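From the shared-data thread, chain only:
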Amino acid sequence: MAKLADMTKHRGFPYAMPGTGIQFVIRRANPKGATPIKALPRHARPGSGAHRIDAAFLHALWHHFGAEPFERGNLDAARLNLLFGREVVAVDKDFDPVSYEAMLVINEKIARQSFPESFEDIFEV
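Structure, as tokens:
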């Protein structure tokens, strides 16, 4: 079996959105390599279920990391891809989209415009 890549596990970060099968983190590194981080179009309208999931993930990011840069680590690529390039951006211009060590940061101005509910102290699911 191939040796798995080192991957930071963000202890205390919510595993998933309660009441759904939508995960926010992965359990182990992918032996074939990390799923690339890339901006994907988001079609969810405010108030829709998909928008609530994105807002819940951003809420978890904000309340876990705040405005500080954070390592991709075990954060789910599918969730990050829907926020990447807008609410979540690369820290460095030499960003490696397939590295578990890639550094990201929340673009607070854009994130507050797109998901103001994510910055409340409590997020109702």
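The chain has a mean pLDDT of 93.
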